Structures are given as structure tokens and as C-alpha cells.
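Review box. Two proteins, two foldings.
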Amino acid sequence: MAAVISTAAWLKVFLHAAKHEASEVNGLLMGVSMPTGGGRPRVVVEDAVPLFHHPTTAPMLEAATLMAEEWGAAQAPKLAVVGYYHANKRAKTHVLSPVAQRVADKVEANCPGAAIVLLDPDMIVSEPERALRLCAASTSGSDEGSWAPSDRSLKPRDPTTATAKTLAEHLAEGGPVDRVVDFDDHFDDVGADWRNPGLVTVAEEARGGEGGSESKGDEEGDTLVAVRPGAARKRP
């Protein structure tokens, strides 16, 4: 399967996982699936919709998915659910949970060739562009049909963007992230916008540097990161 992700969507996945590092988080990947002339379709992920950071029920998942699909259909060009991402707690766990397995099955059934992704915490610092591990379903043996990480990754469309690398480094060091909203937040407060307009704007405390602030945008203009130099903040 061939798949790429926009820098903005890539960053949003990182932010969601970093905000709730003590919890499992998940979300939908929105984009387009294009035929490749015989093989599996090529998936282009344009946006990410954070779903939950608490255990959820099927009705809540169905409601969130329906809202995301309706929003995607109203975009120009139209976006559909073309993938699913999952992040475990910040532990060295490299498997999808049973619930994540079932969600992945449904996403793949509706979009053959969907990008099913597991965030690999071991790669966040060393190889952030490879941290979103693409999963593949086993085709034989006792694990037939189960999703497991492959050696391939869902990489940002522009992996050399300074914004992406800088943010990934600071997330790994405990940079404060609180702007991203998921459907748990939205269902608690309908004023919390799960579409995350204006994201990514993140106030970070970087490693050393001079005083003041600096804004950096990616080369595609689809995100903005505000970097405020200072001492790195430790996680609580």
C-alpha cells in the first residue's frame, strides 16, 4: 500500500498522543483514496480527526464517525475516512488493542487499502518521520486477520520540514500541548471544536536559546507552530 500524510495531519496525531500520554488515544485519518492501475489504491491523508482518550462505547464511536464523515463530505475537495490511528500509553507496546483491531477492520472494510497506523514511541525522538507505523493484517496462521505493525511508515509529505522535526523533538521532551481537542472533549463541552480550526499553534518551551518568540510555518502553509524559547518543562 502506498500512503502519505500532510504535515498538518501528521502533527495533529503527535499532539493528540502527547496530550494524553497516560491514555490510549485514537483517531480517524481523512483524505482521498486513488486507484493505482491494478494494485492497492494510493491513500493521501489530508487531515486527522482525534477521536477519544478514554474507553468509549460503540454509539459514541458511531456518532463521532458520522460527524467526521459529514464534515469531510462538505470539504473541497471531499475527504473520506481513509485510515485510523492508534497510540498506546507511553510504554513499549507495539500492538493494537482488541478495540482498535475491530475499528481497523471496519475502516478497512469501508476503504480497502486504508492506512491503519500505530504510533511507535521508540521512534518519536530518533526517527520521527517513521514513528507512524503502518499496520498490515495477517493472512495466515492463528493470527489471521489481526493487525500488526509492519516495517513501513506513514510518512509526512515533506519529511524535511523544520516545523515537523522541531515539534517532534520538543514533544519527546515534554513540551506543553493542550490545544488539540478530541470527541471526549467535545461530548463534555459542545463548545470544544473537534475540527481543531487553526491547529497547529503550540506554545512550546524549547531547549535553551535566546528570549522572545518565533513563528515557523511549514512549506505547504497548512500549519503554524509558535516556538517560545526557554527551559524545557518536565512532565507532571
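Next protein.
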Amino acid sequence: CADPSCRSLAMAAEPEVGPRASASSLEATLSLYETELGKWWDALEALAGTMDAEAICSCVDRATEEAVARQREVDSTFDPETCDLGEVTLSDKVRTGVDMLCLRANALDDKPEAALKIWADAMRLLPADQFYLCGTTASYVLMGAGDTLHKSGKLDAALSTMRLVMFIPGTIGTPYAHFLLGAVKAEMGDVEGATVELGRALFLDEGGELFETVSEGKGKASIDPELFEMAKRGAAELQLEMERIEHEEG
């Protein structure tokens, strides 16, 4: 409002309290987070010239190969299989800053608005135009934000976040990433998609950490029995598919 009297009235008004104020504040923080998320999605579109998932994956793979080649010119012993790419694309100062923000956000599990703001702050420390070359530093931030959004019931934003993180090399094959994406899809009613992702998580979860003693709520991510059944169906289907492929190749 351009009228100074309006501004004075706004400043003098009693602050809104209670659930409505909390919900409104969370929506404002969500808007800020989605602005940062949009920048990362825009970076993928700029890289690939399209939003086609296969084209994006190909372009990210090529950019990763080029980054690895540049690093090997500096250090011929560099091996992306044993060294995270983010360790060489990011400065120690940036990685330390992001790590500290992640610790703070994880400590705010019961305060989603504050946690989401910190996840957005962490994203701002990373290069938006090349976040996909930041390795686990970037993927950890997105998974943390996705978890916060999921627990807050912001499912559209959670799904967009978890879809995005899958484009970061090394994320696919991470049990918790597949678990969280599956949990979000399940809550959104995508039973088929949830079964696939939860099945992948269970199949990859060799130590059983994610799914152990589900009924007692233990483990890194306890889930309800219905989701666990979906995971078992998905893992069984994945096992059958792998056996079929092995049989055809044999």
C-alpha cells in the first residue's frame, strides 16, 4: 500500500496468532522455497533445452563426464566412484556452510516452517545453474526439504522436490530417496508409482535399516503396514524382472 497511513495501521495492528497465522506463515515460507526450487528446475531445462526426463538425464550425464574429465586434468587419480563430485566442484567454505544449515534444519523436525526456510537458505549457497554437479551436498538438501514438505502435507512441492533430486547423479539407487518419493506418491494416490519406488527402496535396503520393525516405529523411516505391503509387492516385482532379464541374457 502506497498510503503512509495504511502502512502505519498495518504496523500498529495486533499480530495474528494461532493455527491461521502458522498456516499463513508456512505458505509464505513455502513460496520462498518454491522460488529456489524453480531456479533448479530452470537450470535443467536450460541444460537440456526441454523438460523431457530422458533428455535431461543424458545432458546431466554428459555434463558430469565433462566435469570429471576436467578434474582428472588436475588430479589424474580422481575417481568419481570413490570421491563425491561435490567435494571438488564446491569450496570447503560452501560445503561447510551447507552442512551446518543441514544440521540446523534436521534439529527442527517439529518446526516445518523454520526447517523449510533453512533448506531454502542451503539451496542459495549452491550454484543454481549447476546444482546437479554438487553431488551428495545438493541431494541431501533436497531430500531434507522433501521430507519436511511431506511431513507438512505440502505434497505437490514434496513431489517436485523428490523428482528433481533424482536427476542428481548418485541419487538413484539411494534407498531413502526411493522410499521418500514412494511415500509421497502413495499419499497422493499414485499406488502404481508408489509401489515401484517403495519396492526399489526395500530391494536396495540390504541392511534393513529403513523397514526394520515397522510396527514398532523403529528404524530411520518407520512406515505404516499398508506402505510396507506395497514395498514388498514392488520388491517382488523388481526381483522377478531382474530374474527375467538374467534368464534372457543367459
